[in-house]
Amino acid sequence: MRRGGAIPARFVDGYPELLAEVSATGRLPGRTELDGLRHLGEQAAEQGHGLRGLVGLYLRATRRAWDTLPGVTGATGAAELRRTGGSVLAAADAAVAALAEGYERAQRLAVRQEEAARQEFIDDLLYGRSDLGRLSERAERFGLRLARAHTVTVAWSGERYDDAHPLARRLERELVGRFGEHQVLLTTKEGRLVCIAPAAETSVPEALAALATAPEAGGPGRLQLAVGRPHSGPAGVVRSYEEALSAIELAERLGLDAAMLRAADLLVFPVLLRDRAAMADLVLTVLGPLREARGGAEPLLETLAAYSAARYVGAEAARQLRLSVRALTYRLDRIRTLTGYDADDPLQRYTLETAAMGARLLDWPARPL
């Protein structure tokens, strides 16, 4: 909302006359008069005038009118003057309260309209709707220059967020304060935090992660971030957002618990899934024999995942699995015996890793292939 200059004198038209009648009769402003003042307050807000200036205008008008009020000039004693003064002050108080009520009502309406326009813009932007030229024009209003390359970061935890959530509001203030209002746009979508920033601002995802997990931010202790790749134009924002969502889906399917996932680091997985039939054949051929193990294939698949995550250091993998090194060695021997593949052989290790990753992507053996 723009701020206007000096408030026109018309905003106090009729007010001195009201005070004159109040001083003469002692009555308070009526409903119709208060409704008119509320309407003036709304007009002042819509035209960009400040509430402080509006209140000051009425207080000055009250002071100017005081010496000419009939109840003051015609007062015959101190008691009558006090009664008149009390009536005038009560009328001024009621007038200012009505003005403020109308002003605040207009502001609340403007905020709701702004929030609705912002949410409509976010929906159109992230879902690729609306004319691209018009979308770029609307983006300027919300601090984005869509001709640039942008990166979208999506943050999520066990809690659902909306634009009124305290964490979302705090993060927006902090990020805008650090990078500028024309550099980042923080919003929420489907219960997740979404941050759109120029690709040149490479530190935004790290800053978002640090702010969201800081104790003073009131955020959750375990917030994960997915970062899409940078792309140009309005369509690029959509693409980066979709990449971040795909990273979230992969994290859920693969059980990835890294604090930050970058779509650029996960490009191998769409490639693996592109030929589902070939991946299913690899999983069944390499890992199918694990179903014959006592307890089924799941414990041995878990062992492969832990061994890989520990960079094939047996003691670390055993610690992660809460097993003895001897028990881990036994499981690795069973994998080698059943599949014919040795996790300690570099070439065979790659085959086992790829097949194990495919099993997690295809939810095997819980879901038959």
UniProtKB/TrEMBL annotation:
Residues 19-118 form the RsbT co-antagonist protein RsbRD N-terminal domain. It comes from the Bacteria. Residues 300-355 form the PucR C-terminal helix-turn-helix domain. Residues 128-249 form the CdaR GGDEF-like domain. Belongs to the CdaR family. This is PucR family transcriptional regulator. It comes from Peterkaempfera bronchialis. The lineage of its organism: Bacteria, Bacillati, Actinomycetota, Actinomycetes, Kitasatosporales.
